[in-house]
Amino acid sequence: MSLLTVPRRCALAGALLLGAALPAAAGPALDAAASDPVALGWMQGFPPPDDKLIGQPDANYFSFPKLRWTVCHFRELLPTKRVSRGLGAPRPLPYALDAGIDALRFTPLGGGAPMSWADALAANYTDGILVLHKGRVVYERYAGCLDEAGVHGAMSVTKSLTGLLAEILVAEGRLDEQAQVASLIPELAASAFGNATVQQVMEMTTGIAYSEDYSDPNAEVWAYSAAASPLPKPADYRGPRTYYQYLATVRPEGRHGEAFAYKTVNTDVLGWIVARTTGQSLTDLLSARIWSRIGAEQDAYYTVDSIGTPFAGGGLSAGLRDLARVGQLILDGGMLDGERLFPAAAVERIRAGGDRAAFARAGYRQILGGSYRGMWWVFHNPHGAFAARGVHGQTIYIDPRAEMVVVRFASHPQAANAANDPTSLPAYQALAEYLLGKP
Amino acid sequence: MSLLTVPRRCALAGALLLGAALPAAAGPALDAAASDPVALGWMQGFPPPDDKLIGQPDANYFSFPKLRWTVCHFRELLPTKRVSRGLGAPRPLPYALDAGIDALRFTPLGGGAPMSWADALAANYTDGILVLHKGRVVYERYAGCLDEAGVHGAMSVTKSLTGLLAEILVAEGRLDEQAQVASLIPELAASAFGNATVQQVMEMTTGIAYSEDYSDPNAEVWAYSAAASPLPKPADYRGPRTYYQYLATVRPEGRHGEAFAYKTVNTDVLGWIVARTTGQSLTDLLSARIWSRIGAEQDAYYTVDSIGTPFAGGGLSAGLRDLARVGQLILDGGMLDGERLFPAAAVERIRAGGDRAAFARAGYRQILGGSYRGMWWVFHNPHGAFAARGVHGQTIYIDPRAEMVVVRFASHPQAANAANDPTSLPAYQALAEYLLGKP
């Protein structure tokens, strides 16, 4: 199925859920200050002026600079499903703010003049960043559409939470990672996923005919996006209507297990496996296992398809501090206040990483020597760092050696993290080295 | 504009937001146990079976018995806007449960055999009910789709919160209830609302050509509903696209101030006035003035139109305990833990009631001698009771003499409260008399 057969309105609505990099206007993008969504006045007033509206008649709500507003407001545009924090009191985060961090200097990847940590935030269109060192908040900043009481789209950071839940089930013996997908989800037997193992799905080494190249009108992502849209479909629409229906149509291409290829549909398959295995939706399971256990300050939520399936590959919106709580729990191997929330093996498996040779074939220049395991990016650097990463600059970056967790929400004009990695990955490394040895 | 010119898909999507009583299947409705949404298996499984799906392809999601699931899940079907509880710890509700309440007996309105309080709950398809006496929880039950950690559509109870916010602004001198609407919202100058006063809007005594009779295909509610829908409109749609645009089209009929007529559009005008007056959306204002101040356990939310306007006339979903906190705050005239959250005059004005002669002309047989003020129903009974009321059985019922607050969520097959009033209003009165004189 190509764009030619998918009503464009449907396809766009879904594509935007994926954080698609829609064609940008010509010329350099506005910088962070000039594109600030509050300063630009999006959606202010009752009603907002026509040229400041971002809403459902406007299928372009994820184009820059509008996306700088949209990343904090997905639920106002789309149906969503809650991840409940429960009803208890939030668990306060201890603070030990370090005023020296802003002046920290580092050299961007690929060379260029050294820059300060503070300058990098604007360069990366950071909407919120929080750093935990030894479990204490040493740095916290908000900008753009976000504040401490708001939530922000986590984009593909979502994948890593899906992966964590799956790794927990594997570690608990409830999910066999060597099982073939068809044995768990018979509906996928005839698809490319049917004879892949759970592990190949979790490492994204499945051999599938699926392109996320938005510049190609024949890319499968358009049909996927149309299927994923929760909005009513046109009367003449004949394609798949849900994530699950779309996944069953994915055809094989190449062999499973040979090369890492970052394709969101793998995560949606994994989300399906997790839901079928536990009998709980991803949102309910994430609440039960994590969100209601960490003293979260805010409910999180997922965008959903037309039958309420949470978007396992990118649907999460959450508060920055709560994402930091999740990161700390992972750094601590599942322990919180002396209580074990999940087996340490779940994180150990992620930290050990995936198939590095398979990963190398994908050619990620910013993550040379890395791997992908349980839907986490593993750097295999001397600090043992690993990360959840989402388009436009979202991350949970965990540095075990420095006992550091960085969580960042951002709204970079370019979707691909290759655009912000040069001024963020070395900044995290410099901060880790700065924090090493501090009490 | 009639149904003939409004695409039916759009109209239905919006109409369902209003809690429209769509034509029911022939024969008596399933009882509460037989229509239990969990027992019926709606939306269970990954994916749910086709005959258990309730989603966007199905424009009938607010028909009985599906509505018994939908009332807890509006956000999964529609875009919504949050009412933040803030980030603090919830304020615990004190408990003093009274096991004697279930056996309390009363005689239904209109006669019939006496029935027990407990039996009335099932008869009324109650999803959750909580009673505060002197600020302590003496009764709490959940059923159907609801539990203590869930939220439920408040339907037109929403109106009373819009009205409370407006009464607060009046009491604070920020809103002149004698002002003409056109002086506050110039966009409404040419509409029927233009030369009405704010008070006439707040008492729903405006003279407007607007019918909410869903059995009439020419009723204005269909065009209103199409305008209100947040879903993308068909390419050939030419009508108003937002609440605000629709309100500007309402034509006059009759004279302002003569008769009470329960028409939701009045509340949407009031919501517009409140937002324009304060510079805050209803959701943000409700959070700032109430939700973040009462120690709420959960965020609430509103459904929105295509430009994010919260549905002032019926869009709220909230937790039962939080609605009880709101009711207690109102009973206490704006005081909480020794702090004044809003002027006592705001509640005094509501309790004093509206124009009883104007109200009588509407012929509400269950509320003879009553009135409507600040979007609250005032019974003018010996206990001074007043209530927020929403279709299918939602209520905040406040009895000042008995120092009692009853909050109830329900999913009665019939929308009109005339269907559940006979077995609920006398139950509340019996409970009030039972509680009178208790410590």
TrEMBL record, chains A, B:
<dbReference type="InterPro" id="IPR001466">
    <property type="entry name" value="Beta-lactam-related"/>
</dbReference>
<dbReference type="Pfam" id="PF00144">
    <property type="entry name" value="Beta-lactamase"/>
</dbReference>
<dbReference type="InterPro" id="IPR012338">
    <property type="entry name" value="Beta-lactam/transpept-like"/>
</dbReference>
<feature type="signal peptide">
    <location>
        <begin position="1"/>
        <end position="26"/>
    </location>
</feature>
<keyword id="KW-0732">Signal</keyword>
<dbReference type="InterPro" id="IPR050789">
    <property type="entry name" value="Diverse_Enzym_Activities"/>
</dbReference>
<feature type="domain" description="Beta-lactamase-related">
    <location>
        <begin position="129"/>
        <end position="416"/>
    </location>
</feature>
<protein>
    <recommendedName>
        <fullName>Beta-lactamase-related domain-containing protein</fullName>
    </recommendedName>
</protein>
<dbReference type="InterPro" id="IPR006311">
    <property type="entry name" value="TAT_signal"/>
</dbReference>
